[in-house]
Design brief:
5 helices; alpha/beta; Nucleotidyltransferase, domain 5; 5 strands
Amino acid sequence: MRILGVDPGLANTGWSVVETDGNRYSVVEYGVIKTSTEDETVKRISTISSKIVEIAKQFNCTGCGAEDIFFTKNVSSAISVAKVIGAFSVSLFKENIDVCLFTPTEIKKAIVGVGGADKEQIRMMVMVTTGMKDKIKSDHAADSVAAAITYCATFNMRNAIKG
């Protein structure tokens, strides 16, 4: 099973494709979608959504785990991120790709075991969990891998509960 991971942002959206057999995870590919502040917000959101769908189709992803919106001191950036999440979620839904949104705390608990983990702890556990040798340089891409793994773990739990 291949799962798309997304760490949404208006300027930088991290993405990854994680493959799992249910017990092991491997990173197939990852990157960052960058948009220009010179473009209108609607164009930036549309670009991100289109590229996310393109990646999901290219790698035959059946699901998507993404970081959900969280509020910080900058409410206007949170609103922009919420718009990005809405756009790609609807676009993936139209392609019959399951989308699960997780709070940052849920992702940190799933990957590290504690909700207060820092970026470096996330990055290191992503490497350990997937067997990656090289460190992912982008926080956005590393967070997207963590979101994909969280989706996989949640998917496995949902299936186990169903019987």
